[in-house]
Amino acid sequence: xxxxxxxxxxxxxxxxxxxxxxxxxxxxxxxxxxxxxxxxxxxxxxxxxxxxxxxxxxxxxxxxxxxxxxxxxxxxxxxxxxxxxxxxxxxxxxxxxxxxxxxxxxxxxxxxxxxxxxxxxxxxxxxxxxxxxxxxxxxxxxxxxxxxxxxxxxxxxxxxxxxxxxxxxxxxxxxxxxxxxxxx
Length: 184
What we know:
Layout: H1 20-38, H2 49-77, H3 84-103, E1 106-108, E2 111-113, H4 115-120, H5 122-155, H6 177-182
Antiparallel strand pairs: 1-2
Helix pairs in contact: 1-2, 1-3, 2-5, 3-5
């Protein structure tokens, strides 16, 4: 049995918050995932692709968004700050997910139909069909970036090395001029 203490978290940069934004972010993420999967049903477009989206896209988006919300909540509860990049990627993933839900077609007995097609006509539907797949892929990719950034935020800021730390004299920030000189 070791008497060493577990490594402690870095000191908070502010007083701990209540983490409400993490809960809100998770709820918005769940709603965006549901919109991407079956939002077309709200406009009377029901078809066979909803099942495929429910089995493939929905679980991925929901897990990523809920974990991101959890990390944002942990960041706040621990008194750390969320980086602007985390918020920007999270909001970008929501916006792209909403656009995907507007443009993704549904296979019905009459052919392919989308919300955009109902609102703006057949030409807009054809354009939307071509754009929706990249929007979905980019939305999920940016959601993954948001998850990774939020996990880093929840760990807190990296402590600067001190003179007592072994190897502190060898620490050179990557972007410093000294680091550029020592690169192979």
